[in-house]
Design goal:
mainly alpha, globular
Length: 92
């Protein structure tokens, strides 16, 4: 059986040194910044960019999109994107 979206989010959180969450929630800005760092997308840690910008950068860095246009990442990650992120973090 494949992991649920919540299980994938928690796997990613733990891979980047964040805490597992019991309730189902999307990533916080801080968690997205940690994922950005882990996949090699630079963000200014003094003033975190908007979530869509960080999500788009993550997707570009793992090869899911061609560019880091925030318009393609206005919504939280889909299950396939979470799977790709988890796989990218496992390979590092």
């Amino acid at each position: 059986m494949s992991p649920t979206v919540d299980e994938l989010r928690n796997e990613i959180r733990q891979a980047v040194g964040r805490y597992e969450r019991i309730e189902s929630t999307a990533f916080t800005k801080e968690a997205l910044a940690a994922i950005c760092e882990a996949v090699g997308h630079d963000v200014d840690s003094n003033r975190l960019p908007p979530k869509p910008e960080m999500r788009a950068g993550i997707l570009r860095c793992i090869g899911e999109t061609e560019d880091d246009d925030p318009a393609v990442a206005e919504r939280p990650f889909r299950k396939a994107e979470l799977t790709a992120i988890a796989a990218a973090l496992d390979s590092e």
